[in-house]
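thought: user wants a sequence for this fold. calling inverse folding tool.
action: design(structure=
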């Protein structure tokens, strides 16, 4: 009597693995765009135009004139006006083509906004003033 041996294929199918990786990639891309790094309550003034690019560095001034700053997806940290220049210089070393978004509450005096704009101008940083989209009637 002859014994028949079952042939086992040494290949491994990666089709299901690539499907799982593709689904994970889509999931993380969608959730990363939904997450908003701005957790500080700031009522922005209304504007007609919105920027399409994401800023690398954020400077936030709330209605109590507290200032916060963050680079990329880092959490905001409290900062003073004197500490802003060194903070922005460190950020510029990490990313030379950096630009800064200024989120200022609409009740913040204009002189505080101008101080931040002057710091950016003196150090040749690109600056964007963040506003909220126009209200639809």
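)
observation: tool returned 137 residues.
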């Amino acid at each position: 009597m002859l014994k028949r041996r079952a042939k086992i294929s040494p290949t491994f199918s990666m089709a299901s693995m690539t499907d799982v990786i593709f689904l994970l990639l889509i999931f993380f891309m969608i959730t990363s765009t939904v997450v908003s790094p701005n957790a500080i309550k700031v009522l922005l003034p209304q504007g007609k135009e919105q920027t399409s690019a994401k800023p690398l560095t954020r400077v936030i001034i709330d209605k109590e004139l507290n200032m916060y700053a963050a680079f990329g997806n880092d959490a905001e940290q409290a900062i003073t006006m004197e500490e802003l220049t060194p903070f922005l210089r460190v950020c510029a070393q990490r990313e030379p083509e950096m630009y800064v978004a200024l989120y200022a509450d609409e009740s913040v005096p204009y002189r505080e906004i101008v101080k931040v704009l002057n710091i950016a101008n003196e150090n040749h940083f690109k600056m964007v003033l963040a506003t909220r989209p126009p209200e639809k009637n």
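thought: summarizing for user.
answer: Here is the designed sequence. The chain has three helices and five strands.
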